[in-house]
Amino acid sequence: MARLILFLLAICLIAATVTMIASALRPVVGASQGGPMSSQFRKIAYLALFLLMMGLTTGLLGGL
Questions:
Q1: Triad 30, 49, 63: Cα angle to 5°
Q2: Among the residues of the chain, which ranges form H helices?
Q3: Which of 7, 18, 34, 49 has the fewest C-beta atoms lying within 10 Å of its C-beta?
Q4: In angstroms, rounded to a whole number, what is the distance separating the alpha carbons of residues 35 and 43?
């Protein structure tokens, strides 16, 4: 039963990640051009940071 729950949780996380990446890559209406970092790359950077933190806390990265 635990495997089923973990599998469904993984599917939900993958779907949420794909949705966030797709929305980050979609052009934003009225966004200002310029600045040190555009909002698209900022969202991708936050997503990568979140995945890194989740990997470290679950032990998938860095060993146990």
A1: 165
A2: 2-25, 39-58
A3: 34
A4: 15
Residues 30, 60: contact at Cβ < 8 Å?
no
Tell me the two tokens of residue 42.
């900022």
Residue with tokens 């933190």: 53
For 1, the 3-state DSSP assignment is coil
Tens digits of pLDDT across the chain (64 residues): 778 888 888 888 888 888 888 877 776 655 555 556 677 788 888 888 888 888 777 776 665 5
